[in-house]
Amino acid sequence: MLQSAKEFVLDTVFPKFCAGCRGEGTWLCEKCLAEIVFVQSPTCPNCQKLTPKGQFCSRCRSKSNLTGIISACHWREGPLRGLVHMYKYEGIRELADILAAFLIWQLKKNPIGKNTVVMAVPLHWKRQNVRGFNQAQLLAANVATYFNLDLLENALVRTKWTRPQVELKGQQRKTNVRGVFACRNSKKIINNKNILLVDDVATTAATLQEAAKVLRAAGARQVWGVVLAKG
């Protein structure tokens, strides 16, 4: 099939360069894809003990609002970091399809079960206006479509403008996101649901934990973080 005029012009004016080796023609070449290390043996996000799907182990569970964190890849220097940076900060939205495929691969290995819905960690409206899109929302939409699950949009909102988490460390991250989320007119659709809460990368998981706290208070049965990698 002939390439559309729009695609031809965009590829000519804005050529694609591999996130890993910078070779022209694709966002991720086969060689660099082979360098991405996928998670084969999920572990407790806190103590790293082997656990099913990446759930928190019995010892760490009481300290967590999340049921677990399903992580697709290991966060190492290389192509994955390049892809995430290009997607999130350079606004290359078509990378959502590639990155979502990583999440889908891991979720196929670790199905959550019935009564499951998908949602994204929301951005504050000011940051979304600046960035132009919510990177987690596009990933969540891909996941929901693939598994034929409901995508809950606007069920969880970010009510406060905060500093970017990437600028902070440790306890600062927890303090920064404290009380920033709220559920609005959504308790009926959240009640007793297993929620796949999608984000790009979990460094300390402070954002996921704070969002999960609000969702559990609204009646969610389980809340699983779903991320490309844990930092």
Write up this protein.
The protein is globular. It is 36% helix and 16% strand. It has helices spanning 5-13, 30-33, 79-89, 95-109, 125-131, 135-147, 170-177, 187-190, 206-217, and strands at residues 68-74, 116-120, 150-151, 156-158, 181-183, 194-198, 201-202, 222-230. Strand 7, helix 9 and strand 8 form a beta-alpha-beta unit. Strands 1, 2, 3, 6, 7 and 8 form a 6-stranded parallel β-sheet that branches. The longest helix is centred in the middle third of the chain and has 15 residues, at 95-109. By secondary structure, the protein is of the alpha/beta class. It has a single domain (16-230), classed as 3-Layer(aba) Sandwich (Rossmann fold). The mean pLDDT is 88. Helix 4 crosses helix 6. The protein is built from 9 helices and 8 strands.
Please sum up the structure shown:
The chain has 231 residues and is an alpha/beta fold. The chain has a single domain, classed as Rossmann fold, CATH 3.40.50. The protein is 36% helix and 16% strand.
Low-pLDDT parts are: none
Tally of separate helices: 9
Within the CATH hierarchy, at the fold level, what is the topology?
Rossmann fold
Coarse structural class: alpha/beta
The tally of strands reads 8
Mean pLDDT: 88
Could you state the order of secondary-structure elements as H and E?
HHEHHEHHEEHEHEEHE
- Measured on Cα atoms, how large is the radius of gyration? 18 Å
How would you sum up the global shape? globular
What's the number of structural domains? 1
Determine and state the CATH class: Alpha Beta
CATH level-two architecture:
3-Layer(aba) Sandwich
Describe the main β-sheet briefly.
Answer: 6 strands, parallel
Strand content: 15-25%
Alpha-carbon distance between the two ends? 41 Å
Helical content, roughly?
25-40%
